[in-house]
Amino acid sequence: MATVKHKILVLSGKGGVGKSTFSAQLSFALAAMDFQVGLLDIDICGPSIPKMLGLEGQEIHQSNLGWSPVYVESNLGVMSIGFMLPDPDEAVIWRGPRKNGIIKQFLKDVYWGELDFLVVDAPPGTSDEHISIVQFLQATGIDGAIIVTTPQQVSLIDVRKEVNFCKKVGLQVLGVVENMSGLCQPLSEFRFMHLTETGEQKDRTEWVIAYMRERAPEMLNLVAFSEVFDSSAGGGAKMCRDMGVPFLGKVPLDPQLCKVAEEGRSCFGDSKCSASAPALKMIVEKLLSHLRVSRTEDGA
Asked: pLDDT tens across 35-82, in order?
């Protein structure tokens, strides 16, 4: 780990907030900026990273230097227990000590080489894996943690616990990302349904699109936005102000981002991710500014 310049944990208080999607896209973004990047998946029971990086079915190889990461590109290596499972549907039923052991192996026995960034995708919560990774990495220095949340209070309640966890273990909070911050999608990509009195849905998309094209074609260039989760209490931004931690920004719920994550691709090279990619790019730039990192300093 001494050959890794920057180590960043990606945490969440609650599952299902898009933490692994953010970890994957952060890694894609850093690699696209010519940094040497490693992505370590320590979600032992629910490893999503192999799919989100397009690496399903890949295996770890052993060399005289140790385990070799699986590479997406020459400057983006990945390690996950998902590469070790004979069947992707197989459940990992391990107690804490065994989880801690594999995390230590990932850090000690994997030959990462010279890295600018090691992004660590952690499971939700504040349990054994989190304590172990912080303790293991603190010996060689760790930059801090990014915490991912959604806007509603049921998520923010657990994120507050995550912030307090970081403070108790001496881990700097680099910032909070509010994910799924409203559905954002071009109007032309929506499906329009007519709901009958019996609750049956009838697709009227073709009629609506044709009507707009004829009567108001400029509407087809609009982007529709709708709040999915209740953010009336102020969302992630207010929580950050209350707790004195940085707010990195908001990422909308973008169906195109969901699609590239399912396909294991970067959103930054996909022109259809017009809602999410600019928001993610601004967050990455804000993070690098906070870390005082520039491509001329650390990039290849």
From this structure: 999 999 999 999 999 999 999 999 988 888 889 999 999 999 999 999
Residue 52 structure tokens: 């989100």
Question: Which of these, 124, 157, 151, lies nearest to 20 by C-alpha position?
Answer: 124
The full 3-state SS of the chain, as one line of letters, equals: CCCEEEEEEEECCCCCCCHHHHHHHHHHHHHHCCCCEEEEECCCCCCCHHHHCCCCCCCCEEECCEEECEEEECCEEEEEHHHCCCCCCCCCCCCHHHHHHHHHHHHHCECCCCEEEEEEECCCCCCHHHHHHHHHHHCCCCCEEEEEECCCHHHHHHHHHHHHHHHHCCCCEEEEEEEEEEEEEEHHHCCCEEECCCCCEEECHHHHHHHHHHHCHHHHHCEEEECCCCCCCCHHHHHHHHHCCCEEEEEEECHHHHHHHHHCCCCCCCCCCCCHHHHHHHHHHHHHHHHCCCHHHHCC
Q: Exposed/middle/buried for 250, CB within 10 Å: 0-12, 13-18, 19+?
A: buried
Q: Span 220-241, mean pLDDT?
A: 93
Q: Of 252, 239, 270, 95, nearest to 163 (Cα)?
A: 239
Percent of all residues in the chain with a pLDDT value above 90, rounded to a whole number: 81
Q: How many C-alpha atoms does 67 have within 13 Å on its Cβ side?
A: 20
Residues in the chain: 300
Q: Pairing relation of β-strands 70-73 and 76-80?
A: antiparallel
pTM as predicted = 0.92
